[in-house]
Specification:
The structure is a single chain. This protein has about 550 residues and is an alpha/beta fold. The chain has 3 domains: about 5-135, Protein-Tyrosine Phosphatase, Chain A; about 150-255 and about 410-555, 3-Layer(bba) Sandwich (FAD/NAD(P)-binding domain); about 255-405, FAD/NAD(P)-binding domain (3-Layer(bba) Sandwich), CATH 3.50.50.60. About 30% of the residues lie in helices and about 20% in strands. The chain has 16 helices and 28 strands. The strands form 8 sheets. Strands 6, 7, 10, 11, 12, 13 and 24 form a 7-stranded mixed beta sheet that branches. A 5-stranded mixed beta sheet has the order 1-2-5-3-4, sandwiched between helices. A 5-stranded parallel beta sheet has the order 15-22-16-17-18, covered by helices on one side. Helix 3 packs across helix 4 and helix 7 packs parallel to helix 15 (about 455-470). The longest helix has 19 residues, at about 455-470. It is globular and about 70 Å long. Pfam families: BLH_phosphatase (PF04273), Pyr_redox_2 (PF07992). Its EC number is 3.-.-.-. One of its GO terms (molecular function) is hydrolase activity. Its cofactor is FAD.
Length: about 550
Amino acid sequence: MDLKKITDKTSVCPQITPQDMAAIKAAGFRAIICNRPDGEGADQPSFEEIEKAAQKAGIEAAYVPVTSGMVQDEDVAAFGSALEKLPRPVLAYCRTGTRSATLWSFHESKKRPMAEILAATKAAGYDMNGVARRIANGGKTPTDTGDARYDVVIVGGGAGGVSVAASLQSRKSNLSIAVIDPADIHYYQPGWTMVGGGIFEASQTAKTMGSLIPRDVKWIKSAVAAFEPENNAVILDGCRVVKYDRLVVCPGLKLDWDAVEGLEDTLGRNGVTSNYRYDLAPYTWQLVQEMKDGRAIFTQPPMPIKCAGAPQKAMYLSGDAWFRNGRLKDIDIQFMNAGGVLFGVKDYVPALESYIAKYDATCNFFHNLLSVDGESKKATFKVAKPDTDPEMVTVDFDMIHVCPPQTAPDFIRVSPLADAAGWVDVDQVTLRHKTFDNVWSLGDVMNAPNAKTAAAARKQAPVVADNIAADIAGRSPVAAYDGYGSCPLTVERGKIVLAEFGYGGVLKPSFPSFLLDGTKPTRAAWFLKEKMLPPIYWQAMLKGKEWMAKPEKIQVAAK
């Protein structure tokens, strides 16, 4: 816990946990303000958890959530109102503390000289010069000049961002490159299915961000507020401006937990879990081990989602555990899928259907989860089958694994880079933006019609790196992305159906069928998933070593 004092009455800090409350109390704070919306991070405690711990410690708590990088006038007013009502001294927190410091700066600008505000925040470790410029510019951040400039700016330090930084560096070592990401921890998210199945420990899927950013690449630990591509500018938390010659956008997508009524209030308890969160995947395995009988529900929302097979992977591994311990006959497995098919590429469906039969699971198509009542253990779905009127169905459960609805991040959806649906608008072959020639995108956030998987990002990073290198040299794009994605479907402990496919569902196997037939469950595919893919991710992909990921070349028609 890193407490940063701005004045005797107000301090700010990065994300806190319920376990920090005793130390916060001992430091003399009488109130806390949460400026971070629930569900923003994969390992973030909810405000409800924080509030309960605060109340137990005799500390008042207020919830003033602000979308990362988007401090509005009404947010400042709400922050000021909370400050007036709460006893002092107050501790405000968000992911890094920047939002809280920004809110305080705007609030105090009505009564303090700006020089005093800048001095106080600088002493606390926050640069609010961008706030000063925004106030002086009538509330809009000027982008004609910047606080920093780089040859290439990469927004997002996940699988796509770190990989493309390393791939770029391996091609042109003299480039000045910056990666913008506020997270302290980088997660190997494909491993969370294995955590929920009792195969991996959660700690195996996490490393510090600082240890993974390539050497000589600048890590800007901040959230993005907005893009101004006409001015080659990215606006950060605190209203700072970073300028670029070329931009790569890959911040991932947003898990919209709030879209399911009641879900946030009950996650991690009452039998409600999800492998889509680092801190909840172990709870999935706990529930599977403890469950002796009753109903287990596994949900899948409308597409697009990150790793379309993950919701049913959780179901298969749970069913396998119950099969092995002899409890399967007493457990009713229900798969509630908002879509109309088990898997989008038909070649893999027969193998999956055999496991649906093995685990005696019931597939309920066109069922979209609307609400969860954890206390009553009831889930309500909207059933919208073709050519029928929609109806609401409420189902009892003893355990429910929820895959949340997913959208593009808010700062992407409202940006000039987005298409009508909110995703970054790219050419699906070159991954170059359709409007802005010096912008590229990869990973889950862009709108190419491919599966949103880490395996896709592994193939996309060299394509983006090759095409940026070509652009710097004054040439046209040279590398093509074929839509490759992979989904290792963990149908039982020790066997996987290795789905590999490209645009249009065309099969794209990495190995000849006599070595590994991806349409059938194999132990070889399990070995690949359990033993080989994690080190390939950490030691090859994130270091720019493009093993089995060399991009296809764009074919130029003969004149």
